[in-house]
Amino acid sequence: MDYYYHTNVYQYKGMWIHYKEGIVDGIVIDDAAAKSKKYKTPSGIGYGSTIQEVIQQYGKKAFIDSNQRKVRSITYLMERDKQGNYSVITSFDKFVLEGGYENLMILSMVIDQQSRVSFLMIADYEFAYHPEHRWTETQ
């Protein structure tokens, strides 16, 4: 059977939680649900946070997509250490060379025209970078 066949996605008022083998591997919060500003990262970033607040909390070591000097999205790559703590890193190079992305998490945000977060995704590497396998089953 396809490895991804046993995945499940649960939708809770605009927040999607994706499970793989019974473990959460992706959380997506879109602007429809996030308008309540209920959902935030452990650092307090959520819908409506400014780009300045994001950078203040997570730093400048990010992949930034911009158009005409306007940030459209910002993505942080984080590596888990042996103690289970995450720190922002700036490159996939080490993982490409050594293989294995199991200790990586992605924090990605879409920034709207007012320079505020309008979409947030926290996910492992597979979920974030292999979208064709995201939504196998919706519950």
Describe this structure in words.
A hairpin with a 5-residue loop joins β7 and β8 (117-124). The protein is an alpha+beta fold and 139 residues long. The chain is built from 4 helices and 8 strands, in the order βββααβββαββα. The chain has helices at residues 31-34, 51-58, 93-98, 125-129, and strands at residues 7-12, 15-20, 23-29, 63-67, 70-80, 86-89, 104-111, 117-124. Residues 1-6 and 134-139 have low confidence and may be disordered. Helices cover 17% and strands 40% of the residues. The longest helix is centred in the middle third of the chain and has 8 residues, at 51-58. The chain is globular and about 35 Å long. Strands 1, 2, 3, 4, 5, 6, 7 and 8 form an 8-stranded antiparallel sheet that branches. It starts with 6 loop residues before the first strand and ends in a 10-residue tail after the last helix.
Per-chain topology:
Blueprint lengths: L6 E6 L2 E6 L2 E7 L1 H4 L16 H8 L4 E5 L2 E11 L5 E4 L3 H6 L5 E8 L5 E8 H5 L10
Antiparallel strand pairs: 1-2, 2-3, 3-8, 4-5, 5-6, 5-7, 7-8
- The proportion of strand residues reads 35-45%
In terms of structural class, how would the helical and strand content be classed? alpha+beta
Largest sheet: 8 strands, antiparallel
Structure summary, number of beta strands: 8
Reading the helices and strands in chain order gives: EEEHHEEEHEEH
Q: Over all CA atoms, what is the radius of gyration?
A: 15 Å
CA distance, first residue to last residue: 20 Å
Q: Oligomeric status of the shown chains?
A: single chain
Poorly predicted ranges: 1-6, 134-139
